[in-house]
Amino acid sequence: MHSCTLLQDAANYQPDTLDLNTDAKAAAYWFPCFRELVGKFAKQAANSQLDDDTAEQRAAQFQAAYLCQLDEHQNNIANNRGKVVLGTSELLKLNETMLRRYGFTDPWLRQKQQENASAKARLKQRLQEIDDIANEDARWTELVRGVLAGNMFDWGAQAIATILEQDSNFGLHAALERIEQRPWLLDNLDAWLQRLHLSPAHKCAVIFVDNSGVDVVLGVLPFARELLRRGTKVLLCANSEPSLNDVTSRELSELLDDCACQCDVLDSAWRSGRLLVYANGQSGPCLDMRTLPRELCDAIAANETDLLVIEGMGRALHTNLNAQFACETLKLAVVKNRWLAKYLGGDKMFAVICKYERS
Description:
This protein is α/β, with parallel strands linked by helices. It has helices at 24-47, 55-75, 77-80, 88-101, 109-131, 136-150, 158-166, 172-178, 189-198, 214-229, 249-259, 264-272, 294-302, 313-318, 338-343, and strands spanning 186-187, 204-208, 233-238, 275-279, 307-311, 328-335, 351-357. The radius of gyration is 20 Å and the shape is globular.
């Protein structure tokens, strides 16, 4: 564990939004939810290794082991209440741990490759759409909406997986139509726009990204490009290890090699080191700022980072929604779970979280 200068109070930092050990209603929803999800993950794991005769058996073993561990967590709630926080992040990370234990290191690799190829082919068109918006507020609004719509492409969310399975043509523009219209469930967009108008450009932005494909290529990259245009250095942080269809740091570096040549701003920044990629130290779909690699912590400090952007349900909603940071923070996510939307005070599927906080 390394000290991250972005934490306002490292000693009391608690990433998890929910504690299933103390919140009975949350526990009553999430334990059955994960029991159902693990069956779908087991099927995905077996299908990812169809050329291996042992895959189906190992997938069944993975499912049984996960359920056993899940039962143990649930049976120990009374003993652990008030002593240990049990967040949804732990149950999500457990999924990845068990998959690796039974030989499934990257079950969503094929989907990631296909979605990255498709998104790369549409990047130039998306950048032109952004550039055609002359008004700065309107352009930034569309960029934020693009990040949010891109975040719909999450194979870990059952509501989205169903859409993607049924409609192979579902893309960014369709997602833009699906997300909640303003005013959003948590809507600080106007404060973010005002900050861009009234204050100098940020020195350095650290962006913790989420999914492969449309999310990172058509959502995050145009957003990062606009920051680069303002003179802000950008550090893109992606998973160290595969998790669901989340992009890894290695995959993101390869994507930028391919994408940068489509845009002079990205190309110049990528070549000059004003746009960099770092591994975030995570092996699951959430984000614990206490476990960032030293290399990333050093880069955050050395570049005088003054803007933190956290994207996605796992990193900005299951974790870090209520965490306080020592710099300006923009948390962006689409709520792809109706129970969670209601828990947060909304009543719509695909409700939007746009939480901007000054340090």
